[in-house]
Amino acid sequence: MSLEQPQWLWLYILLLPLSIRFLIKPFVNTLPIYSSFHFESLKKSWRQLFEFLPRLLLVIALGLIILALAQPMARQVETQDHEEGIAIEMLLDVSSSMDIHMDLKGRRKTRMEVAKRVLEEFVLGDGKELLGRPNDLIGIITFARYADTVCPLTMGHQALASMAREIVVNERPNEDGTAYGDAAALAAARLSHYELQLQAEGFNGDDLKIKSKIMVLLTDGENNCGRYLPMQAASMAKEWNIKIYCISLGARPEVESLKSGAMQVNVEGSYTDAEWTLHQMATSTGGLFRRAHDYDSLQLVYKEIDNLEKSEIQTLAYERKEPSYALPLQAALFFMMLSVGLRQSVFRRSF
């Protein structure tokens, strides 16, 4: 509660002595009595005891009118969460090599099963390592020889997770291959044109609350087909301010493994040709490149991405004012009417 015109409260200084004078000695005509000796033994009636009540009600009414003049305002504070999420395209390799088995908590599962499980935990959370991405737009693109959109950018994460569970390894030989250059180019186009798509559908600028745009590319091979080279797609992403996080999912790295005739050094800290391309894609756009060889290591990579790409939630407080002078005015009118009513009935004077 606050007062918009508090200067009116100075009237209480005038009201106070007037009220004291009015309550102690009312401004009414009285009959002169030369001696009250014979009346001193008489008890006062209840009317005499409460004879001040109409005057008191009138004083209270005047006080409430002064309060109404000060314009009391009721203040109500409301909070609203302003969420600014991230647009994420998940790029998943579905080539035939994703059918190779790897470890998932002591059990042998295919690379595809491991990748799908960690992807779902990244989106929905696992209650432990990954908290989920409830404020983000997320889409899924798969690729073998061709790139396909499995789920467009959406906030319906339960539906997206359901679609992700249905992803299978490509079994058609004529469509096998690894075209993550095409997949990255498609993801970059989807992310860059999302705002334009919303505007075309009638949404205004306030509805576009995307903090940043990223893609998470997971593959177990090297780009060997498609229209776009990986670095071409990376250049497109860089032009549109899209970061690429690349994950190479493969066998557990050995201390040293050399294959004659080609650059296949897989020493810790070094990269194969395929890994070097992924590393270049990531670093050129401000992202990261990481290796993973089982469920635990893949989950750690997604956890690192989860920590780096945080959505922003700002709590905004709004103060709303509503006039509240009607209540004291109504109370003042009630007390004035009650005062007049009592004076004309119960406390009415006959002289």
Briefly characterize the structure:
The protein is of the alpha/beta class and 351 residues long. The chain has helices at 11-24, 46-49, 53-69, 111-124, 157-165, 180-192, 194-200, 230-239, 273-285, 295-308, 326-344, and strands at residues 2-3, 72-93, 101-104, 107-110, 137-143, 147-154, 210-219, 242-249, 289-292, 312-323. The chain has eleven helices and ten strands.
CATH third-tier fold name of the largest domain: Rossmann fold
Give the helices and strands as they follow along the chain.
EHHHEEEHEEHHHEHEHEHEH
Helix content: 25-40%
Low-confidence stretches: 255-268
Q: Based on the coordinates given, report the CATH architecture of the largest domain.
A: 3-Layer(aba) Sandwich
